[in-house]
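Lab meeting, item 3. Inverse folding demo.
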């Protein structure tokens, strides 16, 4: 394959890495989660007002409620001491809540509105990351198919697939499982239900670091190819000069 096409593909791959890094930086935006009952720094304990309820661990424990008179978020109906459900003007609310002065709590976190904008931005940026990743793999896949003889394409694709699977499902999986375990502040029922506020930033930094490494490797390859071509042209000029003399 002509070198100019190879460089174009590598340049496109580097651009996708660069755009992905920008998106990861934009994702590092937080919001005010307000007051959360039982949460003190990076530790969480069940509020005292509901400790007599005997909350059994559930698979999907995180289901926040808002006690409006206190503007405090409780992480589950049981942790708010709620034992019933009422309907007020077509709106479903939890009743008999021992942690609420008026014994009622609404579904959802009290800070839901303040975090809605950040959530919507995340929903927009996340598909962008997927698009950049697909374009990056398309450029690299095309490059892999063009740089070897036809008889070696299947072997090369097999090796590339094995490397991607090894990094994704072994090293990558262990990295993110480790980050999740370190940032977990509420473990119940065999799973983590709540992470610290540093958790999303840790995930973004880890993902962005991998993209930066890919960007450095791609740019290094581009520079190496250009230097190799320049060296080849210099040698050709010297050989032409020697033949003429």
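The presenter then showed the designed sequence:
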């Amino acid at each position: 394959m002509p070198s100019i096409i190879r460089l174009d593909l590598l340049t496109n791959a580097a651009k996708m890495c660069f755009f992905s890094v920008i998106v990861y930086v934009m994702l590092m935006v937080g919001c005010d989660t307000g007051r959360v009952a039982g949460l003190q720094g990076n530790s969480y304990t069940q509020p005292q007002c509901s400790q007599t309820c005997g909350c059994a661990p559930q698979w999907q424990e995180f289901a926040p409620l808002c006690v409006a008179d206190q503007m405090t978020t409780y992480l589950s109906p049981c942790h708010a001491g709620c034992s019933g459900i009422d309907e007020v003007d077509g709106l479903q609310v939890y009743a008999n809540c021992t942690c609420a002065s008026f014994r009622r709590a609404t579904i959802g976190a009290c800070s839901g509105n303040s975090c809605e904008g950040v959530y919507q931005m995340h929903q927009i940026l996340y598909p962008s990351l997927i698009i950049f990743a697909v374009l990056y793999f398309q450029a690299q896949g095309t490059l892999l198919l063009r740089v070897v003889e036809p008889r070696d394409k299947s072997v090369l694709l097999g090796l590339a697939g094995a490397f991607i699977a090894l990094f994704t499902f072994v090293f990558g999986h262990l990295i993110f499982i480790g980050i999740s375990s370190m940032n977990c502040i509420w473990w119940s029922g065999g799973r983590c239900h709540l992470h610290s506020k540093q958790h999303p930033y840790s995930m973004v930094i880890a993902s962005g670091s991998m993209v930066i490494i890919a960007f450095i490797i791609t740019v290094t390859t581009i520079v190496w190819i250009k230097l190799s071509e320049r060296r080849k042209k210099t040698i050709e000029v010297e050989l032409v000069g020697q033949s003429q003399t």
